[in-house]
Amino acid sequence: MTAIAMAEQERRQTVTVLFIDIVGFTALVDDLDCAVVRALQRDYFGIVSDVVRAGGGVVEKYVGDAVMAVFGTGAGGFGAEAAAAAVKVGLSVQEALRGQLLAGRFAVRTRVGLATGDVIVDVAATRDFGHGMISGSVVTTASRLQSYAPHDTVVVCSETRAVTDQLVAYQELPPVRVSGKPRPLGLWRALAPQHARTAKRHLWAVPAAA
Fold first, then answer.
1. For 31-73, how does the pLDDT look when each residue is reduced to its tens digit (9 = 90+)?
2. Residue 176 and residue 144: Cα distance in Å, rounded?
3. At what angle do helices 80-97 and 34-54 cross, to 10 degrees?
4. In the chain, alpha helices (H)
5. In angstroms, how far apart are the furthest CA atoms of the chain?
6. What pTM did the predictor assign?
7. With the C-alpha atoms ordered 48, 50, 51, 55, is the resulting torsion angle positive or negative?
C-alpha cells in the first residue's frame, strides 16, 4: 500500500475507549465444560455488543471475557456527547447484566474502564466490525483503569471526566499507580447522567400537596 493510500485510510483523532470484563472469570470457568463457557460468552458478548452499538460505539475486539469498544469515530467526530455516550453505555451494560443468568445459570459482576485520548483510526476498519481499528496508548490506559475499577462500577480517566463533567455525575476515587506511567492516574467513578441527577433534585424540591 502506498503512503498516499495509507494516509487516506488512516486519520488521527480523539476517541474514548471502553473496556469491560467479568469479575472472577478465570475461576468461574475453570471447571466448566468448554461448551458451557461458549454459551456464557455468547450471552455476555451479545448483551454488551447490543448496548454498545445502540449507544453509538463500535466493538473493536473480544478477548476472553473482555470487550473493547470505541466511541467518537463516526461522521460527527469526537465531542463531549461521544465521550458521555461511552460512559452511559458502561452504566447501561452493567444494568442490562444485573439479574441476568448467562447460559441460563450464571450471574456475573463486571468492571468497566474508560480513557480518552488521541489515536490513529483505520477508517476502513470502522466499517468492518472495528477489528484493529485504532492504535494509541489510550487503549492500554483504558484496559489498566478497568482492572482498578471496584466490582460493578464504571471508572474513567481525568480526561474523560473533564470532557463529560457537565453530562455525567462522578465520584472522585484515590489516584492509582499504573505500570509504565510516570505519575499516578486520576480515577473517577461514574454515578449517573447529569440530567437524571438534576431531574431527581427537581423532584425532591416539589412540595407535598396540601
1. 999 999 999 999 999 999 999 999 999 999 998 899 999 999 8
2. 10
3. 140
4. 3-9, 25-29, 34-54, 80-97, 137-148, 158-164, 194-205
5. 76
6. 0.86
7. positive
CA distances from 90 to 13, 70, 74, 166 (A): 22, 12, 19, 17
Q: Which residues of 133-172 are buried (b: 16+ CB within 10 A; e: fewer)?
A: bbebebbbbbbbbbebbeeebbbbbebbbebbeebbbbee
Class assignment of domain 3-203? Answer: alpha beta
Nearest alpha-carbon partner for 21 in 108, 136, 115? 108
**Domain ranges within the chain, ordered by starting residue:** 3-203
Neighbours of 97 (CB within 10 A): 21
Q: Which amino acid is at 61?
A: K
**C-alpha grid cell, residue 144:** 489498566
